[in-house]
C-alpha cells in the first residue's frame, strides 16, 4: 500500500496544513517518506463532529455486529502483510520478530474484545421488577445496563507501535464499549499509524458503520492533542507516555467546563524484591535473569525493572556480581527515537552524578545510532529515602539497587515508593513470612504483584491489571491491558418504569441476548 501522508477523517483522506511530522529511522538517521502535515482546528472539528454523529448509532449496534467489526479490523491489519512489519521496523528500530509478535498481540487483543462484546457481561444488566403492591410505597420496574461514554481520544504510545497505538488496547477497549475513537498518532511512527488507520477505515466501511466511528490525526500534542481533549464532544481519553505529557493533558481534561476521565499510563520503575533465602539459594541465576529482563527491548517497557530492593550481605553481592557479568553481554539496542535516546542519556547522567549513587557496571556502548548502553547503579536505603528524585523513571535499560540493612529498612523503602504498575517478589518457601509482611504494602503501591517472574511481558487476559496508583497511572481504579479495560469507557444508566418496547434490547423482558442478569438480587443461570 502506498503511504500518502494524509489524515484519515471518517472515510476521507485529507492533507494536513500544519507543521509536518516525518519519521526517522532511529538506527540510521534516515528520514522516511512521506511527510505527515499536522491537522488544524478544522480537521479536529471535522473528526469530532463525525464521531459525535456516529455515537448514537454505533453504541446501539448489536453485540454480534460490534464483535464482527472488531474481528474485521484484525483481519484488515493482517491483510496488510509484510509492508506493516517493514515500516514498523524502519520507524522504531525494533526487531522484526518483536513487531511480528506485536502484530499478533494486537489482532489477538481485538479478537479477545470481540469475545467480550458477544458475551455481554460488560452490560452488567440488573433488573429489580416492579412491586406495585409494596407498602408503604410501591416500587417501579428498575433496570440497569452500561453504555459507552461517548467519543474517545487515544494517544498512540511510542514504545508499542502496534499493540498500544492506532488499533491497540485503548482503541480496542473503547470500540468494544461502543465509543467512536479519534487517534492522535505518535510522531515516531506515522507510516505504521497510517497503514493501521487505513485498515480500520476499511473495516468501518465493510461493516456498514457510520464513518465517524474512527479518525486518525497527526500533529503536535500541544496543538492537535490539546484541541481534541478540550473538545466538548470528547468524553474520555487514553494515553501512554511521559509523566509530563500525561499530566499536561490530564490538566486539560480536568479544566474543561465538563471534566472528563483521562486515563494516562505514565511512569513506573517496577521494584523487584529478591528476598533473603531466594538470594542465598539462587542469587547468581537471579542476577543474570534480571539483566535479561532489564535489557529486553532496550528497557523501553513501562514494566521495566528499574529498581531492586534487597538486604545487604554476601548473597546480594553474588546477585550484583552476576548482574555485572551479564551486563557485558547486554547488547546496546537501538532506542525508539533520538528524543527518547537523549532523555535516557540525561537520566543516566542524573543517576551517575548523584552523590549517594555508585555505578556498578555498564553494558557495551553499541555502534549504531541511538544505542542504549545498559547500566546498573547502587545506593543505600538511607540515600534512596532521602531523595524522591531517585524514583524518577529512567526510560531505558538502567536500574538502581537499593541496599537495606535489615527487613525493617526494606519495609520502610517499600512504604516510601510511589505508585507502580508492578511489584515483584523473588522468594523461596523459607521467605514466606518476609513476603507476607510485604504484600499488604505492595497491594497499596502496585497494580500487579508477581512472584518469581519478571515484570516485563504483560499477558492480555481477563485477570490482568496494567494500572496502579499515581504516578503509574492517573487513575488507579482501572487497567489499560486486558478485558477489564472496557470498564474505563462505560457508565451505568438506570431505566425506571419504561415500557418494554421503549427499553434497549439488552434490558427487554425476553432477554434476547440471553444475558446472565442479576434479577431481584439473584444471578440467572
Ligand atoms: P510523550 O512525550 O509523553 O508523548 C506522548 C504523546 O503525548 C505524544 O503524542 C505527544 O505529542 C503528547 N504530548 C506530550 N507532551 C504533551 C503536552 N505537554 N501537551 C500535549 N500533548 C503532549 O512520550 P513519548 O514521546 O512516548 O516518550 C518520551 C518519554 O515518555 C520517554 O523518554 C519516557 O520517559 C516516557 N514513556 C514512558 C512510557 C511508559 O509506559 N511508562 C512509555 C513511553 C514513553 P507530540 O507528538 O507533540 O510529542
From TrEMBL:
Its EC number is 1.2.1.26. It catalyses: 2,5-dioxopentanoate + NAD(+) + H2O = 2-oxoglutarate + NADH + 2 H(+); 2,5-dioxopentanoate + NADP(+) + H2O = 2-oxoglutarate + NADPH + 2 H(+). The keyword Signal does not apply. Keywords: Oxidoreductase. Residues 19-468 form the Aldehyde dehydrogenase domain. One of its GO terms (molecular function) is 2,5-dioxovalerate dehydrogenase (NADP+) activity. Pfam families: Aldedh. It is an enzyme of class 1 (oxidoreductase). InterPro entries: Ald_DH/histidinol_DH, Ald_DH_C, Ald_DH_N, Aldehyde_DH_dom, Aldehyde_DH_Superfamily, ALDH_KGSADH. Belongs to the aldehyde dehydrogenase family. PANTHER family: ALDEHYDE DEHYDROGENASE-RELATED (PTHR43353:SF3), SUCCINATE-SEMIALDEHYDE DEHYDROGENASE, MITOCHONDRIAL (PTHR43353). This is 2,5-dioxovalerate dehydrogenase. It comes from Kushneria avicenniae. The lineage of its organism: Bacteria, Pseudomonadati, Pseudomonadota, Gammaproteobacteria, Oceanospirillales.
Amino acid at each position: 500500500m502506498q503511504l500518502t501522508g494524509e489524515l484519515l477523517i471518517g472515510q476521507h483522506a485529507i492533507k494536513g496544513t500544519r507543521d509536518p511530522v516525518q519519521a526517522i529511522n532511529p538506527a540510521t538517521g534516515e528520514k522516511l517518506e512521506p511527510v505527515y502535515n499536522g491537522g488544524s482546528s478544522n480537521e479536529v472539528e471535522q473528526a469530532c463532529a463525525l464521531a459525535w454523529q456516529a455515537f448514537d448509532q454505533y453504541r446501539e449496534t448489536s453485540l454480534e455486529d460490534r464483535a464482527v467489526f472488531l474481528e474485521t479490523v484484525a483481519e484488515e491489519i493482517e491483510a496488510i502483510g509484510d509492508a506493516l512489519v517493514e515500516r514498523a521496523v524502519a520507524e522504531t528500530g525494533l526487531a522484526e520478530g518483536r513487531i511480528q509478535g506485536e502484530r499478533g498481540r494486537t489482532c489477538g487483543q481485538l479478537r479477545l474484545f470481540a469475545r467480550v462484546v458477544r458475551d455481554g457481561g460488560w452490560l452488567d444488566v440488573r433488573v429489580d421488577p416492579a412491586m406495585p403492591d409494596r407498602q408503604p410505597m410501591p416500587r417501579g420496574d428498575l433496570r440497569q445496563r452500561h453504555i459507552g461514554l461517548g467519543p474517545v481520544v487515544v494517544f498512540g504510545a511510542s514504545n508499542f507501535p502496534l499493540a498500544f497505538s492506532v488499533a491497540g488496547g485503548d482503541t480496542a477497549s473503547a470500540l468494544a464499549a461502543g465509543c467512536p475513537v479519534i487517534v492522535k498518532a505518535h510522531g515516531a511512527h506515522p507510516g505504521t499509524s497510517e497503514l493501521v488507520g487505513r485498515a480500520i477505515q476499511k473495516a468501518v466501511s465493510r461493516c456498514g458503520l457510520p464513518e465517524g466511528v474512527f479518525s486518525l490525526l497527526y500533529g503536535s500534542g500541544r496543538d492537535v492533542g490539546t484541541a481534541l481533549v478540550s473538545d466538548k464532544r470528547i468524553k474520555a481519553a487514553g494515553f501512554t507516555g511521559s509523566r509530563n505529557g500525561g499530566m499536561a493533558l490530564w490538566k486539560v481534561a480536568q479544566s474543561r467546563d465538563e471534566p472528563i476521565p483521562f486515563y494516562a499510563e505514565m511512569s513506573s520503575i517496577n521494584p523487584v524484591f529478591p528476598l533473603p533465602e531466594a538470594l542465598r539459594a539462587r542469587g547468581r541465576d537471579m542476577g543474570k535473569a534480571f539483566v535479561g529482563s532489564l535489557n529486553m527491548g532496550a528497557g523501553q517497557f513501562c514494566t521495566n525493572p528499574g529498581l531492586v530492593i534487597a538486604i545487604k550481605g554476601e548473597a546480594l553481592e553474588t546477585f550484583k556480581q552476576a548482574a555485572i557479568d551479564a551486563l557485558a553481554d547486554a547488547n546496546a539496542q537501538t532506542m525508539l527515537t533520538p528524543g527518547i535516546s537523549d532523555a535516557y542519556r540525561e537520566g543516566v547522567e542524573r543517576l551517575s552524578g548523584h552523590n549517594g549513587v555508585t555505578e556498578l557496571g555498564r553494558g557495551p556502548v553499541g555502534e549504531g545510532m541511538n544505542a542504549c548502553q545498559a547500566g546498573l547503579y547502587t545506593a543505600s536505603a538511607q540515600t534512596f529515602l532521602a531523595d524522591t528524585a531517585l524514583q524518577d523513571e529512567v526510560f531505558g535499560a538502567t536500574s538502581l539497587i537499593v541496599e537495606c540493612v535489615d527487613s525493617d529498612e526494606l519495609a520502610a523503602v517499600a512504604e516510601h515508593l510511589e505508585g507502580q504498575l508492578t511489584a515483584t517478589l523473588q522468594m523461596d518457601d523459607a521467605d514466606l513470612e518476609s513476603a507476607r509482611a510485604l504484600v499488604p504494602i505492595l497491594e497499596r503501591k502496585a497494580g500487579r504483584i508477581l512472584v518469581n517472574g519478571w515484570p516485563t511481558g504483560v499477558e492480555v487476559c481477563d485477570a490482568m491489571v496494567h494500572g496502579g496508583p499515581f504516578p503509574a497511572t492517573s487513575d488507579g481504579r482501572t487497567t489499560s491491558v486486558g478485558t477489564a479495560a472496557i470498564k474505563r469507557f462505560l457508565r451505568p444508566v438506570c431505566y425506571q418504569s419504561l415500557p418494554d418496547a421503549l427499553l434497549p434490547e439488552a434490558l427487554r423482558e425476553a432477554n434476547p441476548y440471553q444475558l446472565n442478569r442479576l434479577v431481584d438480587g439473584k444471578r440467572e443461570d
